[in-house]
Write a structure and sequence with these properties.
Layout lengths: L5 H14 L7 H8 L3 H18 L3 E5 L5 E5 L4 H15 L5 E2 L3 E2 L2 H4 L2 H15 L6 E5 L4 H11 L3 E4 L10 E7 L6 E7 L8 E9 L3 H12 L3 E11 L11 E10 L4 E6 L5
Parallel strand pairs: 5-6, 5-9, 9-10, 10-11
Antiparallel strand pairs: 1-2, 3-4, 7-8, 11-12
Helix pairs in contact: 1-3, 2-3, 6-7
């Protein structure tokens, strides 16, 4: 193997670490990959760390000890966070998004990768202190958002289904009353998906009364795991008291007027 130049190592190291946020890479891995001494790799990482910090692109964290290494932690500045949430609020307030029944069409935004990557990083940044082991969501629209949050945390994603699938083995199921349709629905979770004692973070796209979130909490409890937090992209202002007590919402939907085509949706800013 030809000797790898510093510029090439720095570019490759940056790509490798940012492709897998929060994953702890050992210096030995990089030393073997590039055929360079650990001291040389440390110098490269220092260069990346300073550059990331200067442009506010994230944090390079070094963990000391035999089991230590280096990892990239995404960081979205307060200004960038507020800009992203303002953009989402502006786009969700577009008149043609209003669906009969007072709902908003959100699927195009939820399935836009670069937006959900950033929203996932915002959730990770605001909820990292909860130290979850798993990210949990319910099919279907919330999956891209939850998946990008799982990526930012470097954690597995678990999807609760409406009804069980024979391909996933035995499952735990519960009935709940949907807050939007007021119908009794069933959600299920494969028993092997979440180990007993796991710390679970619920991520979803929308919350009205909180019935779906309450169902996911109850389902998680049934398999012996613990919900440590709930994050939703949009929550309605009413009802004020949801069926779950503690949750983080990035946007608050105050009103949708089908006649005037005016939507009052506001971001929850970092200064709030």
């Amino acid at each position: 193997m030809d000797k790898v130049r510093k510029m090439e190592r720095v570019a490759a190291l940056t790509k490798i670490m940012t492709d897998r946020p929060r994953y702890l890479f050992s210096l030995s891995q990089f030393s073997e990959l590039f055929g360079a001494a650990k001291s040389t790799i440390c110098e490269d990482i220092t260069t990346i760390k300073e550059t990331m910090g200067h442009f506010g692109l994230g944090i390079i964290e070094t963990v000391a000890g035999a089991a230590g290494g280096v990892r990239f932690i995404p960081k979205v500045s307060d200004t960038d966070t507020d800009n992203i949430l303002h953009e989402l609020a502006f786009r969700l307030a577009e008149p043609d998004r209003i669906i009969p029944g007072g709902f908003l069409y959100m699927s195009d935004l939820l399935f836009t990768p670069h937006l959900m990557v950033k929203v996932g990083e915002i959730f990770m940044q605001r909820l990292a202190h909860l130290e979850p082991n798993y990210i949990l969501t319910v099919e279907t629209k919330g999956i891209p958002l939850a998946f990008m949050t799982a990526r930012a945390f470097d954690l597995p994603l678990i999807t609760v289904r409406h009804g069980s699938k024979v391909t996933e083995g035995s499952a735990v199921s519960i009935n709940y009353v949907s807050g939007s349709s007021k119908r009794i629905q069933t959600m299920s979770l494969p028993k092997r998906a979440v180990p007993s004692g796991a710390r679970v973070l619920i991520i979803d796209d929308f919350m009205k009364a909180g019935a779906t979130a309450r169902g996911m909490v109850d389902l998680t409890n049934e398999v012996g795991a613990k919900v440590v937090g709930i994050g939703v992209l949009v929550a309605t202002a009413e009802p004020e008291h949801k069926l779950v007590a503690d949750y983080l919402s990035l946007l608050i939907l105050h009103d949708v007027d089908e006649h005037t085509k005016i939507t009052d949706i506001r971001p929850v800013l970092t200064s709030d």
